[in-house]
């Protein structure tokens, strides 16, 4: 199993932007480079093509400051999860695409 950690707030894969041609916004590009760097620092090489892999991602979000004391307490007790962007699908997209061959 390969494990690596990316510090900072989790981001999802941004939608492509268009200005004559498609491009990735600078925040998404910087986050993708951060993931690649963390993966390469783990000492692992890219995966061979056409080899099935399993992925497990853990993300930790800050409790929104707008939450009431009651809701913050529920979040700290893992009884309520903060509902905010990015969703799981976009988080997986940005991570999987950056360690593929």
UniProtKB/TrEMBL annotation:
<dbReference type="Pfam" id="PF05866">
    <property type="entry name" value="RusA"/>
</dbReference>
<dbReference type="InterPro" id="IPR036614">
    <property type="entry name" value="RusA-like_sf"/>
</dbReference>
<dbReference type="GO" id="GO:0006310">
    <property type="term" value="P:DNA recombination"/>
</dbReference>
<dbReference type="InterPro" id="IPR008822">
    <property type="entry name" value="Endonuclease_RusA-like"/>
</dbReference>
<dbReference type="GO" id="GO:0000287">
    <property type="term" value="F:magnesium ion binding"/>
</dbReference>
<protein>
    <submittedName>
        <fullName>RusA family crossover junction endodeoxyribonuclease</fullName>
    </submittedName>
</protein>
<dbReference type="GO" id="GO:0006281">
    <property type="term" value="P:DNA repair"/>
</dbReference>
């Amino acid at each position: 199993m390969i494990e690596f950690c990316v510090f900072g707030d989790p981001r999802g894969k941004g939608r492509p932007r268009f200005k004559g041609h498609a491009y990735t916004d600078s925040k998404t590009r910087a986050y993708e480079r951060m993931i690649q760097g963390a993966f390469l620092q783990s000492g692992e090489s890219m995966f061979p093509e056409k080899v099935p892999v399993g992925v497990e991602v853990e993300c930790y979000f800050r409790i929104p400051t707008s939450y009431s004391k009651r809701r913050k307490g529920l979040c700290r007790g893992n009884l309520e999860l903060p509902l905010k962007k990015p969703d799981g699908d976009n988080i997986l997209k940005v991570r999987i695409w950056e360690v593929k061959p």
